[in-house]
Amino acid sequence: MEWEESLLPPTSVPPALKAEVRKRLGVVPGWVARVAPVPWVARSWASMMSKPVAHVSPALCDLIALVVSQDNSCRYCFGAQRAVMRMLGYREAYIARLERAFHVADLSDAERAGLDFARRISRADPRPSRADLERLARAGFSPPAIAELAYVAAATVFANRAATLLALPPEPFETMVDRPLVRLMRPLMARRLRARPRQPEPLPRPNDGPGAAAVATLDGSPAAGVLRAALDAAWASEVLPRRTKTLALAVVARALGCARSEGESVLALERVARALGCARSEGESVLALERDGFGARDVEEILATLGSTRLDARETRIVPFARETVRYHRPVPIQRRMREVAEGLEPAEVLEAVGVVALANTVCRLGLLVDLS
Amino acid sequence: MSWAALCAALVALAVLAWRTRRTVAGLERRLAGAHEELERLQQAFSRFAPAEVVEDIIADGLSARSEKKEITVLFADLKGFTELGEGLAPAELVTILNGYLERMSQTVVEHRGHVSKFLGDGILALFGALEANPWQTNDAVHAALAMRRALADYNATLVAAGRPALEMGVGVHRGPVVSGLIGSEGLTGYDVIGRTVNVASRVERLTRTHGVDILVTDATRAALDGRFRLRAMPAVAVKGIAGALATFAVEGFDADGRAR
Fold first, then answer.
1. Chain A residues with at least one Cβ partner in B under 8 Å
2. For an interface test with A, which of B24, B224, B225, B256 has the most A Cβ atoms less than 10 Å from its Cβ?
C-alpha cells in the first residue's frame, strides 16, 4: 500500500504521559512520540483504543479494528492491529482469511453481523438504517452492545484518520512478531496487551457541548466517559481557538448529513460568540463579534461555502480540509493535501487540527446512530 | 491378517481425511477469492452508481430503487468540433478528442463529480448524484473553472504540435432529477432523468449566443458561494422552457473576496 513519509518527526515523551499510555494499552506505540506535543491527542487516542466496552467482547473489538482499518486503507493501523492480534494468539491463517474476505472467515453469525455494521458506520455511505439495527438485534446484540459496536468502529476511524493524516511509519514490532524470542515471550506480552474486562458505567455528568448526543448514545458504557473526556480535552486545549475546532466539527457533520452534530456545533459556536461578547463592554462586544465572533448567518455562510473572509488564515486551511477527511479512497492524496494544509502551521497546530478532525469523524459517525433514534 | 486390514483401513481413512481437507481448503480459497472479487467489483461499481444501488445489485441482481434528488448537472460541449473534424484525418480527430475527454473527466472527478456519459464531444457530469454532497454546486462551478484552465493547457499542447485549438462551452444547472437504473434488459445503467438535465444542455448551447465559455442558471447562482465572480447575461427564450432563461457568465473565483 502506498504511503507517504511521516508528516512530523518524533519528539521526547514526558514519562507521565508514557506511563499513562502504557497503562491503557500495555505498550507505548510509536505514535506517542509523534503526538506528544499535544498531550490530549495522545491521551484520547490511547483511551479510545483501550477497548472501553462492557457489552461487546474484546475479541470482537479486535476484529472490528482490523476490518475497519483495512477498509480505510490505513497502513499504520492495519499493520499494528495485525501484529497485536498475532501477539494475542490469533493464527496467521485466520487473520489472512479475515483480510481476504471476512464474510467467508470462521466467524459466528453475530460476529459477521457486527463486522458488517462496523464497516457501515465507518463508510457512512449508505448510512446505517433501522434494518441494520434489526439485523443486529436478531443476531443477539442488545441496544447498549449495538452502541458499543458503533463506538469501536468510530474509535477505529479516529485512529485511522490520525495515523493516515500524520502518515505514521509502520511499528517496528510488526516485523518482530515471528522472531523466535518474541514467539517465546508472546504469552507474557499478550497478558499486557489483553484488555481488562470493564463494567457498565453511568453517563458522565455533565454531558454538554459538542458531541453530547453522540456521547449519550453510549449511556451505560465506559466508552461514554472516554469520549466525553476526549471531547472536553480537545475543546479545552488552547493550541487552536474553540471556534476553529467547532467549525471543523460542523463541517464534518454537514458532510455526513449528521443533523444532530451539526446543530450542536452551531449552538456551540453561538456560545463562543456570546462568550466573546460577555468578555467586553457592550459596545466593544458588538465590535468583538463583528471582528472575531460568528452569528448564525456567518456560520451558515461558512458551512454553505466552506469559506468566508471572517475565517483567519489557519481556519481558511483547516475548515475546508475537514470535509476532505470524511471520505477518501486512497491514503496518498489525502496525505499530500494534509502536507499542504500543514505548511506554515506550527507542529502543535497541525497535531491539534488532526486530532480534532479525527475526533469529529468519530463523533459524527456515532451521530448517525443518534439520527436513527 | 486382521492387523493388516486395520492398518489398511487406517491408511485409507487418513488418505480420505487428507483429501477432504485439501478439497475444503481449495473450496475455501475459491470462496474467499470470489468474495474478494465481489468486493473489488463493489468498489469499482461505486464509481458509477450510489452505494445503495450497488448493494441492491449485489444482493438481488438488480435495483428497483429510484428516487428524486437535487443534484447539479454540468454539460460541456466543444464548439465547432464537427466543422473542425472535417479538416482532420480520422485518427488525428480521435486522438485530439480523447485527449480532451481524458483531461476534462479527470478534472470533474478531482472536484467530486462523476462523468455520467460522453455524447460525442459532449460531457454530461453530475455532482451530488452518487453520494450526498452539500457543496455540490460549488464543486460543479469550481470544476467548470478548472476545465477552463485544463483546456487552456491542452490547447497550448495542441497548438505547439501544429494542431487546432479547441473551444468549449459549459452549462451548469441545479435542480431535481429522478435517478435509478434506467435502460433495457440488455443495456442498463445508473442515470438521471428530468428537466434539469435538459436545462443544463440548453444553457451550454447559450454559451454560443452570449459568446462566453461558462454559464450558470439562477438556480445555480442561488446555491453558489458569493465569491464566484458572475456577470448577468440577457435573458433569452429557449426551446422547451417557459419564459426567458436568465443566465450568468462565470468569470472567476476570488478566494480572498467577500461573500455576497
1. 97, 100-101, 103-104, 123, 125-126, 254-255, 257, 301, 303-309, 323, 327
2. B225
Domains of chain A: 15-198 (1.20.1290.10), 231-372 (no CATH)
Q: From the CA of B123, how many Å to the nearest CA of chain A? A: 24
- What phi, psi does B172 have (nearest 5°)? -125, 130
Q: Which residues pair with B15 in a beta bridge?
A: none
Alpha-carbon separation of residue A157 from A42, A361, B109, B243 (angstroms): 15, 7, 25, 51
Tens digit of each residue's pLDDT, chain A (373 residues)? 899 999 999 999 999 999 999 999 999 999 999 999 999 999 999 999 999 999 999 999 999 999 999 999 999 999 999 999 999 999 998 898 888 877 767 889 999 999 999 999 999 988 899 999 999 999 999 999 999 999 999 999 999 999 999 999 999 888 888 888 888 888 888 888 888 889 999 999 999 878 888 999 999 999 999 999 999 999 999 999 988 998 899 899 889 988 777 777 666 666 655 544 333 333 332 233 344 467 767 878 888 888 888 888 999 999 999 999 999 989 999 999 999 999 999 999 999 999 999 999 999 999 888 878 7
3-state secondary structure of A26: coil
Contact by Cβ (8 Å): B245, B237:
yes
Strands B188-193 and B168-183: antiparallel
Helices A259-278 and A296-305 cross at an angle (nearest 10°) of 140
Do you know the residue count of chain A? 373
Q: Is the ipTM of this complex over 0.90?
A: no
The residues with which A38 forms a beta bridge, in sequence order, are none
Query: What Å distances lie between residue B142 and A328, B176, B211, CA to CA?
Result: 19, 21, 20
Interface contact B255-A307, CB threshold 8 A: yes
A113 three-class SS = helix
CA B140 – CA B163 distance, rounded (Å): 29
User: B110 with B146: CB under 8 angstroms?
Assistant: yes
Take residue A88 and report the three cell numbers written for it. 494475542
Helix axes A313-324, A347-372, angle to 10 degrees: 40
Out of B35, B51, B134, the one facing A254 most closely (by C-beta) is: B134
- Pairing, β B168-183 against β B214-217: parallel
Contact call for B36 and A255, based on CB within 8 A: no
Q: Chain A: give the shortest CA distance to residue B134, in Å.
A: 7
Give chain A positions within 8 Å (CB) of B259.
Answer: 301, 305, 307-309
List CB contacts (< 8 A) between B51 and chain A: 123, 125-126
* Domain locations along chain B: 1-45, 65-253
Out of B28, B138, B255, the one facing A104 most closely (by C-beta) is B28
Q: pTM surpassing 0.95? A: no
Strand runs (DSSP E) across chain A, as ranges?
Answer: none
DSSP string, B184-220: -SSSEEEEEESHHHHHHHHHHHHHHHHT-SEEEEHHH
Backbone angles phi, psi at B75, to 5 degrees: -120, 125
Fold of B65-253: Alpha-Beta Plaits (3.30.70)
> Which helix (H) or strand (E) covers residue B220, if one does?
helix B218-222
